[in-house]
Amino acid sequence: MAIRVFHRDTPSLRLPLISKDARFVVWPGIGAWIANMNYVRLEPGEENVPHIHVESEDTIFILEGEGTIQDYTNDVSLPFHAGCAVHVPVGIKHAVKADRGVGIVSVGGPSPADVPLLRKVGALSPDAQAPV
């Protein structure tokens, strides 16, 4: 495999579970099984469907806006703003919320790829495997 360049405006997957405008730019669907990069826009008042990455850590860098990361597993709610990095450990039920009157623009994603979640939503076939 060679180096490739991707653009946020031509994602190969959009995932409404994350937001109305969640763009999967680098993910297993293009052959990236370890490092993933999503570009996500949340409108004011929008939030993720609460979810868990059972095999992955999730790191989200906030480019614009401010909001709250809700940790349902530990009953914790933390504010963030542009310039912050949000880290979600493996197995934590969480949701990002644009609940501070402005939208959010972020980049990041689970690492390694959240293959179980991608299979569950039909983005990867049940037999899709990382190359050995």
TrEMBL record:
SUPFAM superfamilies: RmlC-like cupins (SSF51182). Residues 39-99 form the Cupin type-2 domain. This is Cupin type-2 domain-containing protein. It comes from Methylobacterium symbioticum.
